[in-house]
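mind reviewing both lines:
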Amino acid sequence: MAHELSELQEILQAMAAQKDRVKDRRELLLDMGERVVKSVSHQFGCKQEEVAILLLSVDGKHLRFIAPRRFAELGSIPTSKRDSIAVGVLARRSADVINNVPMVKHVSFFESIKLKDKPSPIQKMVTTPLLVRGQPLGVAEISRKGETVREAGPDFTPADAKRALEIFDGVAPYLADARPADY
């Protein structure tokens, strides 16, 4: 895992270094988000559409998707929305493992959006804050979807949460660096 993370960090560093040369920094940020998702989904054995990255808006009032890329156009989650799992993780600044997501009150609007096949509900999820020097940048979610808990695959463990936290702690500074001032 350490090798994969350092390789990912090198790629993100090179991408972030282009921030002043690109026409649209938002596109660069979304490209970086896709690169992170590709690596994380491979490391966790899940589909790319089961990984989400949300950044805190500049005013701190919303979590905005950078991945999945299609969600970047669909809206945001207000940080005042207390039944959002992502907002709770952001507020606590600690990772969370939920292996019975349908039983937890949460914002499910984005689950209903078709990315590839028919949308399946999130059954299990690891959610981790994105922090840069202790300050919140956003939240990342790694989920397992399926019609049933069993169909979704194995439960997430505290070790998965720790690994997700390590990965996202390692990539957050690059996302922060490339982020447009108005995003």
Q: What stands out?
A: The longest helix spans residues 158-178.
